[in-house]
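Technical annex, item 7. During the second reporting period the consortium partners agreed on a shared format for inverse folding records so that results from different sites could be compared directly. Each record opens with the tokenized structure and is followed by the designed sequence. A conforming record, contributed by the partner at site C, is shown below for reference.
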């Protein structure tokens, strides 16, 4: 590992103070306050329109996530990952999907979910995540979430790219045939 004298930081525009902003303005542009966030129930609405059990909301803080949202003026710029919270109502589920390009991290803030991971050759892993539990799901495997509690589940979700490839569903899943709206 290089020491700080040898380290060369990546030349990334969003990491440099803009010439037209004071230091305070620049730092404030990197703050995402909960009071300025809104939960986006429409990011994955095409799934809930197919079946209400797929209803869930995303609240973006850094980057636009993997839900297919193209642009959000209200997020902090990110160069290497996305960071959002997700609400999964009681009885709802996130359908099986795959991120081919990024690791996805789930950190439970409230509630409990069953997280199901399907690997190659019929390999399957299931676990229950409760408050303050975390799981990192590698790219290239299907994952699905089921809220097994009686109240909504709230989790932090991170994806390992500022603009991940839009996830896909198993070919035999009904959502694989739908067009995103």
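Designed sequence (site C submission):
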């Amino acid at each position: 590992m290089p020491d700080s004298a040898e380290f060369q930081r990546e030349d990334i525009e969003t990491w440099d103070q803009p010439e037209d902003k004071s230091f305070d303005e620049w730092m404030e542009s990197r703050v995402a306050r909960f009071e300025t966030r809104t939960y986006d129930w429409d990011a994955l609405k095409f799934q809930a329109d197919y079946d209400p059990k797929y209803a869930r909301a995303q609240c973006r803080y850094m980057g636009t996530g993997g839900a297919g949202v193209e642009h959000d003026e209200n997020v902090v710029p990110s160069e290497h990952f996305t960071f959002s919270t997700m609400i999964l109502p009681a009885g709802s589920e996130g359908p099986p999907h795959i991120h081919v390009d990024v690791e996805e991290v789930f950190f439970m803030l409230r509630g409990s979910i069953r997280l199901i991971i399907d690997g190659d050759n019929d390999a399957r892993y299931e676990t229950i995540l409760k408050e303050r539990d975390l799981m990192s799901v590698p790219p290239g495997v299907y994952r699905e979430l089921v809220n097994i509690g009686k109240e909504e589940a709230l989790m932090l979700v991170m994806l390992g790219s500022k603009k991940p490839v839009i996830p896909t569903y198993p070919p035999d899943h009904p959502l694989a045939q739908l067009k995103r709206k």
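The domain at 39-177 is CATH 2.60.120.10 (Jelly Rolls). The helical segments are 23-28, 45-50. All partners now use this format for quarterly exchanges.
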